[in-house]
Design brief:
- By secondary structure, the chain is mainly α.
- It has two domains: 74 residues, Winged helix-like DNA-binding domain superfamily/Winged helix DNA-binding domain (Arc Repressor Mutant, subunit A); 61 residues, no CATH class.
- The chain has a two-stranded antiparallel ribbon with strand order 1-2.
- Strand 1 and strand 2 form a beta hairpin.
- 24% of the residues are buried.
Length: 152
């Protein structure tokens, strides 16, 4: 069970209290890059998160204000998850983690579009990514995706 109190008031500690496990960032990654929005979308991720862990992480991210949930307008039995403004503000973190992984991993798996995006100015990519998320798209998916905006 996770601790209820924080270890310190350090901003790095604060961030790690929210994202200190791999699943939280992977959920945000899937939302921001692939436009995943439902529980079953997240279950289809290649990392194979367990259902109870996913439910716990989604609840945690919602409680911390990183994601919001609402009933699906078409199928009220489904829940739709979206990034909040604070969730969108994590894009620079995701971008830098991905860039570091591309440079450091001996066998990085990434699309050609992602590799091309790393050759552009960081702020250009982040601005396009924010615009995509504000218009219900993502990095790769949607009519206003980063791939579409930047011609990747």
């Amino acid at each position: 069970m996770k601790r209820k109190d924080v270890k310190s008031l350090c901003p790095i500690n604060f961030t790690l209290e929210i994202f200190g496990d791999p699943w939280s960032l992977l959920i945000v990654r899937d939302m921001a890059t692939l436009g995943k929005k439902t529980f079953s979308d997240f279950m289809d991720s290649e990392e194979h998160i367990g259902t109870s862990v996913l439910a716990e992480r989604l609840a945690h991210l919602e409680k911390k204000g990183i994601i919001a949930k609402k009933p699906d307008e078409v199928d009220k039995r489904k829940t739709i998850y979206t990034l909040t403004l604070d969730g969108i503000r994590t894009l620079p973190i995701l971008y830098e983690i991905a860039a570091w992984g591309l440079r450091t991993s001996p066998n990085p798996k990434a699309t050609a579009a992602w590799f091309k995006s790393t050759k552009l100015k960081r702020e250009v990519v982040l601005m396009a990514w924010r615009r995509a998320l504000y218009t219900n798209s993502s990095f790769f998916i949607g009519p206003n995706s980063v791939v579409e905006q930047l011609g990747l």
